[in-house]
């Protein structure tokens, strides 16, 4: 007997300063690419914050919204959509 399983894409709705913003959940390739880019930026003393802003922009969060967030909020959103906690 076969069991049918339906998988659906997930998105998130973040309420930021009273406004809802929709952000897609990234696929594994996007997460891997983001992590690799962040590692490269960290090694080269690059701008990892801009890397996070660019990553979230690709998922639907406007850069001008990301740029107005507190640093912790930006990190929380990245951790939520990737399902991974950033190691300290």
Structure notes:
- There is one protein chain.
- This protein is an alpha+beta fold.
- Helix content is 49%, strand content 14%.
- The protein contains four helices and two strands.
- It has helices spanning 28-43, 48-58, 63-66, 71-82; strands at 11-16, 19-24.
- A two-stranded antiparallel ribbon has the order 1-2.
- A hairpin with a 2-residue loop joins strand 1 (11-16) and strand 2 (19-24).
- The protein is flat, with a radius of gyration of 15 Å.
- The mean pLDDT is 90.
Produce a short descriptive summary.
The chain has 88 residues and is α+β, with helices and mostly antiparallel strands. It contains 4 helices and 2 strands. It starts with 10 loop residues before the first strand and ends in a 6-residue tail after the last helix.
Task: Indicate the topology.
Layout: E1 11-16, E2 19-24, H1 28-43, H2 48-58, H3 63-66, H4 71-82
Antiparallel strand pairs: 1-2
Helix pairs in contact: 1-2, 2-4
Shape assignment: flat
Low-pLDDT residue spans: none
What is the percentage of strand-forming residues?
A: 5-15%
Strand segment count: 2
The run of helices and strands is: EEHHHH
Q: What structural class do you assign from the helix and strand content? A: alpha+beta
Strand order of the largest sheet: 1-2
Rounded mean pLDDT is: 90
Number of helices, counting only DSSP H or I runs of 4 residues or more? 4
